[in-house]
Fold this sequence. Notes:
Blueprint: E1 7-13, H1 20-28, E2 37-43, H2 50-60, E3 66-71, H3 77-87, E4 92-95, E5 100-102, H4 106-117, E6 121-123, E7 127-128, H5 133-142, H6 145-148, E8 160-161, E9 169-171, H7 172-178, H8 189-199, E10 204-206, E11 212-214, H9 220-241, H10 251-266, H11 270-294, H12 307-330, H13 338-341
Parallel strand pairs: 1-2, 1-4, 2-3, 6-10, 7-11
Antiparallel strand pairs: 4-9, 5-11, 8-10
Helix pairs in contact: 9-12, 10-11, 10-12, 11-12
Amino acid sequence: MTLLPMVTVIIPCRNEVGFIGRCLDSIIASDYEADRLEVVIADGCSSDGTREILQHYADLHPRSPQVRVIDNPEKFVSHGLNRAINEARGEIIIRMDAHTEYARDYVSQCVRVLTATGAANVGGPIRTRSEGALQTAISLAFHSRFAAGGARSHCIDYEGPADSVAYGCWRRETLLAIGLFDEELVRNQDDELNLRLTRAGYRVWQSPAIVSWYRPRASLSGLFRQHLQYGYWKVRVIRKHRLPASWRHLVPAVWILSLLLLIPLAVVSPVAQGLLAAELGLYCGASMIAALAACALPRQWPYAPLLPFLFLLHHLGYGIGFLCGMVDLLLPRRTSSPAFTGLSR
């Protein structure tokens, strides 16, 4: 008999007391051969009781599958991922997120798609689960092309080559060859690694057969700060690689710059007033159309009035973060705000 490849699931984790149990339960329930699976969790000095939960699972599962907890004293995701990779025994590495639950065949499908496609990295689209009205509305906005800028990872039916995928599944030798995760990045580590892969000639592949459910932010402030950091750290990725992975990453910042230019000019120029009105009108119209498209089912209609505001939070957060990242790039001695560099969980 041919043995299944040994798989290591790696999870960076910090202060996830409300979610880590459901995450680990879904992984332990995997249909993958238990003695060919291990879980390595890099805990970033959790202070909310998460570490005790992790140790409980490690004690319950010393083998088949083995659950191991390691320390991540730097606390950041990229450091935790790299520490877990260095501890991994598997020939295949699957990165998972503590804020997500996984289908029973998630690991099996990752291994199958990785083998069948010959891609360097495979993953599934980002499906969402929500509780309460606000988080449900945030989930609907999350899947809108208008909010996500057409990112394929937000399209749950897409299968094929992609710029990036949710989480990721690689052969360990591929990760070692490409150089692991960039530990200078607080955000966008996955996107940057996928950019390195594609520019080195490798393929990244998305398959809807790989199923998981992510729980998005449940507050407006959390959503805004998340996208603020995404925009800020995207500048560091562009600086490193000289070009953006996609030109859509520049659109929110360019839109905000145009508003900053037109608003003072509109005070003295009728032409600027007309351009500003046209730009705002187009944005509002597109936002309302996108909100109606995102709420296609009757049970979703009550959330439609909130979606244009959520779209605005996405775009303003990302665009402001990007512009602040540009300022910090041009003024390297300037101290970055904790809003961009601080841990969000």
